[in-house]
Every structure is written in structure tokens, then in C-alpha cells.
Amino acid sequence: MREKAHVREVGPRDGLQLVKTIMPSARKLAWCRGMVEAGINEIEVTSFVPPKVIPQFADAEEVASGAAAITGCRPSVLVPNLRGAERAFALDLAQVNYVLSASEEHNLANVRRSTEESLQDFARIVAARDQRAGARIALGAGIATAFGCTISGSVSEAQVVEIAVRLAEMGADEIIVADTVGYGDPGQVRRLMKAVIAAIGRVPVACHFHDTRGLGLANVTAALEAGVRAFDASLAGLGGCPFAPGATGNIDTEDTVFLLEQLGFDTGADIEALIALRGAVESWLPGERFSGAIARAGLPKTYRAPARVAV
Amino acid sequence: MREKAHVREVGPRDGLQLVKTIMPSARKLAWCRGMVEAGINEIEVTSFVPPKVIPQFADAEEVASGAAAITGCRPSVLVPNLRGAERAFALDLAQVNYVLSASEEHNLANVRRSTEESLQDFARIVAARDQRAGARIALGAGIATAFGCTISGSVSEAQVVEIAVRLAEMGADEIIVADTVGYGDPGQVRRLMKAVIAAIGRVPVACHFHDTRGLGLANVTAALEAGVRAFDASLAGLGGCPFAPGATGNIDTEDTVFLLEQLGFDTGADIEALIALRGAVESWLPGERFSGAIARAGLPKTYRAPARVAV
Hints:
2 copies of one chain form a homodimer.
Chain A: E1 6-9, H1 11-15, H2 25-37, E2 42-47, H3 60-68, E3 74-79, H4 82-89, E4 95-101, H5 104-111, H6 115-131, E5 138-144, H7 157-170, E6 174-179, H8 186-200, E7 205-209, H9 216-226, E8 230-233, H10 253-262, H11 271-284, H12 294-297
Parallel strand pairs in A: 1-8, 2-3, 3-4, 4-5, 5-6, 6-7, 7-8
């Protein structure tokens, strides 16, 4: 029995945030269906931001409830505040992910509140979740700019650990530590992730890496060494960063699966199926820049396709 | 005092092997001068193969002796056999690198000899070196396909260790373990490099990684953990692999320096100067595919340019 490692596809959310094309809901859902067929069930499918802010997510309700109806799919959605969380709660999704920035300056720029105010907002989101009737919705809590910030520069590791502990104590079901701008290196990742895991105890931790400066998969390896077993990734490496035009985006899903499988972990994913799906997604997004090595180079002759796990 | 890590530029050799343009000798030497000015003194400048095999290296003598005349430059050259070594020895270079393949099938395809015959050839090269008058020339010995082979598939780790030990015992001054086709993963790299270092004792070990499948810098990180402190890399990620068309080539020099510096090592290199030089090299090679993240994304705000070491 190989140890499991989880890959959450965030392409339909993080990947579509900066592209030129508004992708029709039907294609977003075809993407989700394709992911499930390729063995990746956890998908962050949309963001509950005001459509005026990001028109791409004007169909958030339709995509989220459509994804929830796909057999085997476990969709999550991103929410920036209580109002977004309430829209998401109404749909009875399995998981809702909230995000705040460890960097005060980045949080102010992103949601016009201090990090402390955003923490208070998470307490209100937990309370709103707990007051709901019906099945319990898991709450993920993301810490953006955990490895540095394009506005403030370095971010204190002690502060990231403290925020993680507070989010866990407030009731987060998962802590997602994010290198939003691609500043992290493997030494920093190993150190910070060990400290976070030691501090928050049993709450599961995921990492969200961008490959902006080429260290995305080295950072995954370092996080694995620290004990992390869940990673956000984006098909075809979609994602980008508004502060680094032309740079690569999220770590690429196919490459992340390849790395994890090569290191002996069971992701449940079929890389050939992911490459085929990637081709479709690329054709739906003309003029975008895609990344990812396995889709170009092919799998090595030594790669053993893992036995597929039943959904 | 930070610990030193060595980056050897192999672009003028490995990087130019597959490009469409025959680069004039003067530009190859301008590239070498630029590397030295940017703080990278060790450069594999050419290959002593027959010009009929690779016309790019018809000017091998001119480039090698031109590079040796650059103040501060420590050029090495690649030789595939005794005849190539004798041409190189005539130039009084600081280092000559020989290469054989751990994969029997790859060695037969590459130099039409068994791996054992190539090992015997190295003994003859060492003898020829030792019989020379004049300053001692260092001999590097490269083990290609050490992490797998596109022809034979997997390559036995025990066999790579045995070859490394024999090369070291024969008189190699440096062992260069090469992932020629980009099959290695960080787990394998850490394991094999620990075993090689433990087996060969005091002979320095370098790694030569290709980024074919996106794991190049993760593999550098793993090799560092195993104790490796020297890496081959290529400006703009030039290199390619004839078995993976469109795939990225050698690990990118600028990105490798960035990773090493972020991890606290002193490379002596100036990344901004490398990026400027890369721009010139790109302009000399129309129609080629380049890779590398730092040149696109820029250095993070948190990067501290290390104090330049005097050449």
C-alpha cells in the first residue's frame, strides 16, 4: 500500500482568474468531469467574488452546483468574505475555502481590510457555518503570501505560524499555506511547513505553490519532507501572477502528479488522461501561455502507471 | 561565511549541440567572457568530437584556447574518446571531461562501444595524461544515463556506483553524474548521490541535470541534501534532448544560481548580469526555444544580491 498524496485542481478558479477568455459554464463543468475521470476528485471550481470584480466568476452558483452534481466530484469554492461564504453555504457544498494574507499590505490591497479584521471575519464565517441546518460544510482557511509578498517583501514565519494556529483554533478544517507570488524556496518551505504542522496539531495542511520562479516542484518536495500530503495545482500550469507578467502560474497538475507518483505516493490520477484533458482546456483558451514539462516531454519509459483507485 | 556551491556553465557545449545555428567562435568566446564577468569561471566550452559528427564543434581548438586566454576563466572540454583527449591535451587546458554511459545500450548507440570498453578507454586517457610533460590536467569523468535511459529504461543504482568507484580508482579528479534524458526524481537523486559519495570517498562529485520533465531544480535540492556542491547548468536552459523534441534542456543557469543563493550557498554569480548575457545569447540563436523562470519573472523583492567575490 502506497501512502496517499492529494492533488486539488484549482485551475477552474485560480487558473481562470487572469485569462482573457470568459469560459462558458458548460466547459468549466466539462473540465471538472474530465478531472474526476482522470482520478482527481478534489477541485476548487470557482470563486464567490462580486461579478463586477472578476466577470469570469459571474456563473459561480451554476458552476458550483453543477460540479456538486458530478458523481465522485468533491468541489470546493473560494470565498473572500462572509457575504461570499453565505452564497456558498446556500449550495450545500462539501467545502468552502476562505483566504486572507499574512502580509498586512497584501491583505489591504486585496480585500481592503487588515489581516486582523480578516481573521475576525473568519470567526463570523465559522459561526454562520455552525448555525446552518443540514450537513456540516468543511471550511478551508488559506494563508496567502506566506512565503513573501511583492508589496512588503519578506513575511515573518512566526506570524504565519500564529495565523495558522488562530485559524485552526477558530475551527478551520484545513489550513492552506500559499506562496501566492512565487517567493518561496525549498529551505524556507521545509522550515515553515514543519513549524506550522508542529503548531496546529491534527488539522490537515495543504500547500498552494506558484511556479513563478521555477521552484514550484522543489518546494513540493520540501513540503513532503516536512509532512505535507496535499497540494493545489492547475492543469497546464494556468494561473499567472499580476505582479510578474509572463511568468508561469500555479504548479502544473500533470507535473505535480508525476513528481508525487515518482516519489512513491498514490495520487489516484492518470497522467495520460490529464494530458488529454489539458489539450482540450488549451483549445478553449486561445492566446494564453501554458506550462508543464510532462505534456511536452512525455512520461519516461520507466514510469509505471499506477493501478487506478475506484472513485 | 557562506558555504560555496559551484555552477559550471555547459551551454557552449551541451547547449549548442542541438541548435540550428552554427555560432561563430567569436560569439562563443564572448559568451565565455560574459560568464566570467558575471562570476561563473568554470565553463565547458566545447566538445572534441569529429566535425563531421557535430559541425558546431569544428572550431573546438580555437574556442578552447581562446577561452583559456580569458583572465579568470577555467575552461574544460568534453572528449568522447582517447583521440579527442589527445587533441585536448595538446592545448594545456585546466580540465578535460570524458563521458561514458551507465546504460550499455546508450553507450553502444552513442560511441559504438560497450560500457566496459569505454572504461578501458578512460584508463588509456589517464595514462596519456600522466605521460604528458607540463602542468597536470584535471580529468573529469561523466556517467551519462545514471538515472535511466530512453533505450533500456531503468539503470541499476549499484552499477552506477560501481562505475563511479572504478573511474575514481583509475584517476578521475571529478565524477559527474548525469541525468542525460531527464528521468531522475528527487528521491532517486538523494539515494544515488549519497551512495556515490559514500563509495568514492574524497573525489569531488558534480551533478548534470536536464529539466526535461520539470524536476531539474527539485533534483538539485535533493543532490545538495546528499552533499553535492557542484552542478552543470546552461544559460537560458539551452540543451534539449533528441529523444524528447520540444522538451526543455539543461537546468537553467540563472535559475540554478537563484536556487543555490536562496538556500544560503555562495555561487559568486551575479544573476542580473547572467540575465543580460542570456539576452545576447538568445539574440544569436534565432528560432530556438529557451527556458528559465527568473529571466521572465524577475528576482523577488526579498533577494539579496550577494557581495561579488573577486575573480
